[in-house]
Amino acid sequence: MTTPSTTAIPSKLPQDLLFNAEKMDEVVNSDSQTYLDRFGISRLTVRGATDSMRALNPRGAWVGPGTNYQARDLVSSGGNWYLCLEAHTSGSTFSGDAARWRPFQQLDSDVTLVFGSNGASDDSAAVVAANALGRPICPIGILHIATPTTITVPLAHVAGQCFTITSQVTINNGQPTRPEWWGVGQGKFRLATIAAAPGTVVEVRGTVAPSDFAYGFSSGGRYIDKPLKIRGQKMPRLSDDARSLVDGSIIQGMVLGWSDGLEFENIGIDCGHTVVTTYYGGTSSSGVTEALNITYPDNATKTAAGSPSTVPKRGIVLDNVIGLCDSPGAPNHAILLEGVADVRMRGSVIGVMGTHGVALKGRDIVAEDIQAYLNSTDALIIKTDSQSTAVATRISIANTVLNASAPAGVTPWAANTPTAGLRFEAAGSSIDNIYIGKAKIDGFPSSVDTVFGGNYTIWDVEFGSISSDQYGVSGTTCALKLEAAAGRNIRKWTIGTLDGRNCSIVGKFSFSQPAAVNNHVAIGTVRAQSAQVGLDVGSQSYVTVGTVIADTLSDGIYRITGTPYLSVGQERKDEATPNVFASSGGGLVPSLNATWSQVADKAVFAAKLRGGRKTLAGTIKPSTSNVITTLPQFLWPSKNEEFICRGRSGSVTAAVPVTVSIAGVVTVNALAGGTANCSDELTLDMTWD
Question: Fewer CB within 10 Å, N or C, the chain?
Fold first, then answer.
């Protein structure tokens, strides 16, 4: 704030002009009652002046004699309004009491004053008449509008309650509708959404108490049923203990909407522990203590064969929105979008606590940044259900941050026992066409996984990168777990980089290859650090990897079971990783037949996956059989392969033919038999497709 001078009025000093400009902003826009002028004198702001006016008590026409009047009563006499200066009992004429009254001056000659009856009578006619004048209406007192009335002119100088809670009013004047116009306490936000005309704005400043929004399990739900923009001034943040939302525009209690054109901007929906304890008896329940749900409002709508359950709600916008539930295990969604299409999620959309953080069941959803924290079942779920509009297709998410713990600087009041970070759940139909640019997922047993509720396909899924850290998580942990039983498919998955650390398995794959179906996962780079196994590939899974970087894996780079196809372009393994192929968990490891052995201090017998091809190398020694080994199926060639290797018997070296059959049988001297030309050692170095 500029420091002014004490120069007498009028001052032309630059600092005084700048000070006055700053003060004018404070006078007009501040919620404070007063401000200090250039000489340190306290004066009323516009808010203070209108609040002072609102403290007046309209009494209607003056009545005498014998009527008791109090200071700040307003009466009309002779077509003018007068303000009572002191308590008194009226005499026989108004002129005889004139010393106790002064003319009431309207705050602004360009507005129309309408004096409310505070619920004593119907003020509809006065409102209609004032509205017809076309000037802004300034309510004095509280208006009771018992007859349905639409206000099309602005409301001026409104700082608190101006309508009774039973008023039948529609606000369609181009200005935001505000909950405090119906007073403070529970239910006022819903009254504002009922009064606001379709396509208009409901503005939330500070915190509003819960309304009675709820999903209708056995009857109709209570929800927002028309296009509205719910606009706050600032998205709030979590309190330091995650019991509530603070420091922003906050709607307490559940918000349920089912309409085209619903928008939420710079707002928080707080169904946290403090709200649930204060307003819901300390008990979280499904459909009642959800945070923000844009979904079917009741079972009747959800199960209807025709409209509206078969018609998605379109044009949904979330712009910097946070939803908070009671606890990690609360049976609720922090953010649920279901049965929707053409959705835009701008800024950050954050779901905290509840079994589900952010749930997406819709089509054509574009999100900039999705975050979720402290969720027990899944932080972000992309899911289909049985309803025809509860789909998951054409979803694009630029960035997502999912954490089983709280954000930095927050110590949550309740502990979390998490399950999955990002879950794809095909419960009612297939999932397809999903793009996620960057996923940072920490603290879950499964960072990314798949779940099926029937014979469906999860396909055309693309990640730019997945980064997972599962430090401190107990049990078997996987950064990426793609599993599908027979009849269920995982097709056309593409992942740029999979970076997994501090886990049991970085990538686990187990799915089949039905006829005419190409189930396939392609990964550019896998970075596996401080894990047990890099890639666990089983069943008939088809997985291709450009580069595998193994750093401190306790068991091996690969665990192969079943009959999968695994292709690796490049492989880098540090010395702390003991094996290429892990034998734990039934892992298949190429091994020599009992009659063959490793030659000491020479190249170790081993198979490798490099350049998309298979390699078998090492220096070994035969005994009686000319069959070296039978390879696991994932190493079988597509056709019989023949190679010439180097053998030695005593001081004589020889070219030794070695064959690898399509059944993986590796044989030396297949035609001649025996091992005479390599009785001391045979050096293998064979590569095939």
Answer: N
